[in-house]
Amino acid sequence: MDISTLTHLGFHEKAASIYLAALSLGTASIQQLAQKSGLKRPTVYIHIEELIKDGLIEKIPIGKKEYFHASNPQLLQTRAQQHLLDIQKALPELEALQDNLKGKPSVRILEGKKGLKQLYDEICLSSHIRFWSNLSTFEVFFQEHFKKISESIAEKGIRTHEIIANTQESKRSSKRYASVAGKNYSARIATKDGILNDNAIYGDVIALFRIHEYNLYVIRIEDVIITSAMKTIFDMAWNSADQFIN
Known about the structure:
Layout: H1 4-7, H2 13-25, E1 27-28, H3 30-37, H4 41-53, E2 57-62, E3 65-70, H5 74-99, E4 106-111, H6 112-123, E5 128-133, H7 135-141, H8 143-156, E6 159-164, H9 168-181, E7 185-189, E8 198-202, E9 205-212, E10 215-222, H10 224-240, E11 242-245
Helix pairs in contact: 2-3, 2-4, 3-4, 7-8, 7-9, 8-9
């Protein structure tokens, strides 16, 4: 058998040779293991302790001598599965370390109604929101949060600027929204077509929604530099948009 299979599992090359020798010999002495593996006896002594510690070889005293017996090879599968579980358990922490690299934005995709509702709940905690949206689409799919966010704007004094699509449906939705949100909500009408979904900037986050029948998801990007640039672009678009609700 090629020992590379075992070295890929983390075995030292010489330890792998000793384990294979033990498997083929059954119960064997150090001298027999050395002869079978082609290694010197002192080398076998060093590496066999590693194999015993890992539970892959068992030491068996017979009379005044010590013999060694290889454990069932299925133990290797159990060991590999445990390593995989350990990696899976540690993966979120490892990914968090990577996400915290200086200069690298945090990007997440939240899917389905549950994911979008989670994002809308987060928006309710901000102090200033910039929306550009087809508000009627949002109202149709998320009536509960249509009301919840507008109520939060009124109750928490959240400054909200919204550029809406230039459609009659979106204008009607904006008026209903403003009737609850009150004086903290302002809306203007986009001078160009193409706003089909909901989008928001709040804090250091940009949220880009995809709301269409059952295809629902939002891309959440958190990065102070990117968000600062998007706020500037939004503010320029706001200044050129048509007045609607002050």
